[in-house]
């Protein structure tokens, strides 16, 4: 009798340990930003520490929503790109955004450089004050594009790629 209840306790203890271990091992949603081959990982906490931006925009004919997050140019700056106006070979750099479903879209880094294109591209983590669910945790919002094709959902990485060719 005694032994049985000890046994049950041991199983319960092991189950708790396993549940805790699995929970601790579950990665917090994050994205990789790669500049000059160097990766910086941003999770929600790291992104929340960057200057926050908001804008109102709609996908297709949907009701406009308020999107909030971090300007893509600012994120790239924190990861080591766009620290100064692009010149020379920098004008052939591009930014490749990759999603969980392997969807990919690119922007010229010059499009995003505030001294050149100054295009508004937001890395959003919330819509109307709510965290993004299936579209997230991070997606792009590109209000000046005519179609929402580059509003990449479920972003896993953002890489600055050298597009120069001889
Ligand atoms: N990861 C991922 N993002 C994506 C797509 C996709 O297939 N996969 N489709 C794009 C296209 S073509 C459009 S029009 C918008 C649609 O955004 P919505 O799902 O919020 O309507 O998402 C864009 N982002
Ligand atoms: Mo689309």
TrEMBL record:
Residues 65-163 form the Oxidoreductase molybdopterin-binding domain. Keywords: Signal. The keyword Magnesium does not apply. SUPFAM superfamilies: Oxidoreductase molybdopterin-binding domain (SSF56524). InterPro entries: OxRdtase_Mopterin-bd_dom, OxRdtase_Mopterin-bd_sf. Pfam families: Oxidored_molyb. Residues 1-24 form the signal peptide. This is Oxidoreductase molybdopterin-binding domain-containing protein. The lineage of its organism: Bacteria, Pseudomonadati, Pseudomonadota, Gammaproteobacteria, Lysobacterales.
């Amino acid at each position: 009798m005694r032994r049985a209840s000890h046994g049950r306790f041991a199983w319960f203890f092991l189950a708790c340990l396993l549940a805790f271990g699995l929970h601790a091992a579950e990665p917090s949603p994050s994205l990789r930003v790669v500049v000059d081959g160097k990766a910086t990982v941003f999770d929600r906490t790291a992104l929340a520490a960057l200057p926050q931006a908001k804008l109102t925009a709609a996908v297709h004919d949907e009701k406009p929503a308020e999107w909030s997050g971090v300007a893509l140019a600012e994120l790239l700056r924190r990861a080591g790109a766009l620290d100064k106006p692009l010149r020379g070979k920098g004008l052939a750099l591009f930014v490749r955004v990759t999603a969980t479903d392997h969807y990919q879209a690119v922007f010229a880094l010059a499009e995003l450089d505030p001294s050149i294109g100054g295009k508004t591209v937001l890395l959003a983590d919330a819509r109307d004050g709510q965290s993004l669910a299936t579209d997230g945790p991070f997606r792009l919002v590109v209000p000046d594009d005519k179609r929402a094709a580059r509003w990449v959902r479920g972003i896993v990485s953002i890489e600055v790629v050298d597009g120069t060719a001889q």
